[in-house]
Design goal:
By secondary structure, the chain is of the alpha+beta class. It folds into two domains: 181 residues, Ribosomal Protein S5, domain 2 (2-Layer Sandwich); 161 residues, GHMP kinase, C-terminal domain (Alpha-Beta Plaits). Strands 1, 2, 3, 4, 5, 6 and 7 form a seven-stranded mixed sheet that branches. Strands 9-10-8-11 form a four-stranded antiparallel sheet. The longest helix is centred in the last third of the chain and has 18 residues. Keywords: ATP-binding, Carbohydrate metabolism, Cytoplasm, Galactose metabolism, Kinase, Magnesium, Metal-binding, Nucleotide-binding, Transferase.
Length: 349
């Protein structure tokens, strides 16, 4: 149902934010490293007006779910991200009670940053409603804080930065330590294919926070501030499984750096290596994703493929010859789903 259907009047303001797919640089953002995402066409849209009864009224059109809450209430599910994003803005200004309508075509639980798109869209809408003057980086940092405090996921900054400042036409090279960034073109003659494995996950219930804690412990044992400062030779000084976690982060940072000047063929090889590292060293893949990635990697029009997002299910991304994405997806999905998979095409739409 529309905003008018739910609240009886038109919204005062409507803003959107995209999901993202990460080509290289997984689990490096909370380790002070480098990432290489791009925005996807799918977006989350948030419409607002001021509430007249002192409560936040939050409605999801996709879930057909409504929650009516005081500002200091205990939201559940999707509303944690929504009200959490409003509450972190209260450090910037007095925020009135709000009517909030959410709609989205970013797949949830698929590793495409549906939560970041929601957070950024909410903060963008409130920012413009109240003319707070926040820029894209400030919005991303507030969205990250909302995810930490209210969703319980100690994420890095990549997802929120990609949703806030990335482009669907280019890759965003982001230094997550300094937030220095630039947009760079995709390898010429190739396009991005994103497919959902059908294996759902929720980060707060997965090994995400455990992996982050393991990285922090590795830094403590090595006497460094972040794994960005580690060398590959340092891995041998760490016990299992911390050595494997550190090896993934160190080699993944190196892959992002190499990709900036790599040929298209080498870029694909780096994506394949990244998936193997996520599967074997970070142990953050999923058997359904591994099967889908393997089928993609065997296809003649695919240069490379890997899991994307934090892992434990969700989507994979492939670099394919321009103009072949739909055909590749049809052929790969046919083989994948014949073995019991439930995959589907996400990008291109």
């Amino acid at each position: 149902m529309s905003f008018q259907d739910i609240f009886g009047h038109e919204p005062t303001i409507t803003r959107s934010a995209p999901g993202r797919v990460n080509l290289l640089g997984e689990h490096t953002d909370y380790n002070g490293g480098f990432v290489l995402p791009t925005a996807i066409p799918q977006e989350t849209t948030v419409s607002l007006s001021v509430s007249e009864d002192g409560l936040d009224h939050i409605y999801s059109a996709d879930l057909n779910e409504r929650q009516d809450l005081p500002r200091n209430g205990q939201p559940e599910g999707f509303a944690k991200y929504v009200q959490g994003s409003v509450r972190v803005l209260e450090q910037k200004a007095s925020i009135p009670p709000l009517n909030i309508h959410v709609s989205s075509n970013v797949p949830m639980g698929a590793g495409l940053s549906s939560s970041a798109a929601l957070e950024v869209a909410v903060i963008r809408a409130v920012n413009d409603l109240l003319k707070l003057g926040l820029d894209g980086v400030e919005i991303a940092l507030l969205a990250q804080k909302a995810e930490h405090r209210f969703a319980g996921v100690m994420c890095g900054i990549m997802d929120q930065m990609a949703s806030s400042v990335a482009s669907t036409r280019e890759m965003l090279l982001l230094d997550t330590l300094t937030l220095e960034r630039k947009l760079i073109p995709l390898p010429e003659g190739y396009e991005v294919l994103v497919m959902d494995s059908g294996a759902k996950r929720r980060l707060a219930e997965s090994g995400y926070n455990t992996r982050r804690a393991e990285c922090e412990k590795a830094c403590e044992l090595l006497g460094i501030a972040s794994l960005r400062d580690a060398e590959l030779s340092d891995v041998d000084r760490l016990p299992e499984p911390l050595n494997k976690r550190a090896r993934h982060v160190i080699t993944e940072n190196a892959r992002v750096q190499e990709a900036l000047t790599a040929t298209a063929e080498r870029f694909g090889e780096l994506m394949n290596q990244s998936h193997a590292s996520m599967r074997d060293d970070y142990e953050a893949s999923h058997e359904q994703v591994d099967a889908l990635v393997s089928l993609l990697q065997q296809h003649q029009d695919v240069l490379g493929a890997r899991i994307t997002g934090a892992g434990w299910g969700g989507c994979c991304v492939a670099l394919v010859k321009a103009g072949t994405a739909r055909q590749v997806s049809e052929e790969v999905l046919k083989a994948f789903n014949e073995t019991g998979g439930t995959g589907r095409l996400v990008v291109p739409q």
